[in-house]
Design goal:
Distance between the termini: 23 Å
Strand content: 5-15%
Helix content: 40-55%
Number of helices: 7
Strand order of the largest sheet: 1-2-3-4-5
Radius of gyration: 19 Å
Number of strands: 5
CATH topology: UDP-N-acetylmuramoyl-L-alanine:D-glutamate ligase
Largest sheet: 5 strands, mixed
Shape: globular
Number of domains: 1
CATH superfamily: Ribokinase
CATH class: Alpha Beta
Length: 199
């Protein structure tokens, strides 16, 4: 069983059948994956939502939900009585939820999803499982790589050099940002999100 998943918005909707249009839909999506026994869920990109704080068209949002250790232990408790108690506790308890937002770059890049997943998993490992550190470091790397790639594309297009205008990520040139990213945006806790409609 997976302990961490990092789907994007489209993948979440495909896997759950939930169209993510509001913050309530995000909570329902997290609940769906947690009910399958997945303690850490990071939705790597959200856009075009209809309510605050996710309704700025110039921003891309990453959101995450992580069950506390006690919740995970309850969920895996054995026995009929223990299972019923765990189910009740799970329904009442809320996982830790966080969001981070970054400016949208007006272009599509090849390989962004793979790099995001790799950075999130690497920093989850390096930080001892801190979802906040993973989000902040991964977003810092991604933004630096995309900004550098976008700058190179614009320079190549201005010079009429189509051979250098590829949207392939400039990973080699961004080695320093991958190893030691400069964090400029911090994750925000959203522990009080609640779905406004039943799952």
């Amino acid at each position: 069983m997976a302990t961490v998943i990092t789907p994007n918005q489209f993948e979440c909707e495909l896997l759950t059948g939930i169209k993510i249009r509001t913050s309530a839909d995000i909570v329902r999506t997290f609940a769906h994956f947690h009910a399958l026994g997945i303690p850490t869920v990071i939705i790597t990109s959200l856009e075009d939502l209809h309510d605050s704080p996710f309704d700025d068209p110039d921003m891309i949002y990453m959101v995450a939900s992580q069950q506390q250790q006690q919740q995970q232990q309850q969920q895996h408790a054995g026995g009929g009585g223990a299972a019923a108690a765990a189910s009740e506790a799970q329904a009442q308890a809320e996982p830790d939820m966080f969001m981070i937002s970054v400016p949208r770059i007006p272009a599509y890049f090849t390989g962004t999803g793979d790099l995001t997943a790799a950075m999130l998993l690497a920093w989850l490992h390096n930080s001892g499982g801190s979802i906040v550190q993973a989000m902040e470091h991964a977003c810092a790397t991604i933004q630096a790589v995309l900004a550098r790639t976008w700058s190179c594309i614009q320079e190549a297009e201005a010079a009429g050099d189509a051979s250098k205008a590829s949207k392939e990520l400039r990973l080699i040139q961004s080695a320093g940002d991958i190893v030691k990213p400069q964090i400029k945006v911090r994750a925000q806790a959203r522990c009080r999100w609640r779905a406004s409609s039943p799952a």
